[in-house]
Amino acid sequence: MRWGRPGAGAAGTAPPLPRTDVELREVTHAYGDRTVLTGVSLTLTESRIGVIGANGSGKSTFARLLNGLVVPTAGTVLVDGLDTRTQAREVRRRVGFVFQDPDAQIVHPTVAEDVAFGLTNQGVPAGEIARRVDEVLVAYGLDGHRDHPAHLLSGGQKQLLAIAGVLVMAPQRVVFDEPTTLLDLRNTRRVARVVDGLEQDVVVVTHHLELLAGFDRVLVFEDGRVAADGTPAETVPWYVARCG
Ligand SMILES: Nc1ncnc2c1ncn2[C@@H]1O[C@H](COP(=O)(O)OP(=O)(O)OP(=O)(O)O)[C@@H](O)[C@H]1O
């Protein structure tokens, strides 16, 4: 099991998505007087990027900076040149975010209504909403559940619903914050397969190191700084050794 770059033609004959590049310039973030990220400068261009590190090292804060859910206390985050501080709406069209706990993301009573939520918000015409919602429900094996109460889905199905609700918005990059932490092995594999097949570029924060084998780049966070940055073969053994 691994999350890697999808094979050529993974999306059929659709043209490749434009790339979304994210640049962090000397980014520092503090919650109140507690600084949790310090002077992070990076450019993210690769298709498959993993983020690992100890609890509290700043990974989730970093992930949330990438689409403007959190704005830096100092420094700048640019998505295709758009400043997350002032152009959050445009940034979020490009970069979607999947939370660790799908309950944080599910806001509507039924599965289909929940997936439609973001499109409705954007004023997309009803016919197009119906078509796009159908497409993602089929893609994520949820079409048999379209009128079911979302809160009664299993943990794995809820995570797939949360992913469907992000992907229906057609972002170019998707940030996943520990998407499998709450799942059993079967659902971890299921979600991993979904991530594996995405044509979108991804950033995945995870403690499941084995899932990063096919990734292009892995960042290791330590005390709010990037302590290692390289291929999985370079960074994962380094991190494991650091953990003693
Ligand atoms: N909203 C917040 N308010 C105050 N402190 C916060 C907030 N969010 C995170 N923190 C603190 O910031 C530090 C970094 O948290 P963050 O969630 O970014 O780390 P993490 O590496 O993702 O951790 P984990 O692996 O446990 O999820 C932690 O000490 C955390 O307690």
From TrEMBL:
GO molecular function: ATP binding; ATP hydrolysis activity; ATPase-coupled transmembrane transporter activity
Source organism, top-level taxon: Bacteria
Cross-referenced PROSITE patterns: ABC_TRANSPORTER_1, ABC_TRANSPORTER_2
GO cellular component terms listed in the entry, alphabetical order: ATP-binding cassette (ABC) transporter complex
Pfam families: ABC_tran
InterPro entries associated with the record: AAA+_ATPase, ABC_transporter-like_ATP-bd, ABC_transporter-like_CS, ABC_transpr_CbiO/EcfA_su, ECF_ABC_transporter_ATP-bd, P-loop_NTPase
Keyword Transport (UniProt): yes
Domain ABC transporter: start-end pairs: 22-243
Keyword list, A-Z: ATP-binding, Nucleotide-binding, Transport
UniProt signal peptide: none
Similarity comment text for this entry: Belongs to the ABC transporter superfamily.
Protein's name according to its UniProt entry: Biotin transport system ATP-binding protein
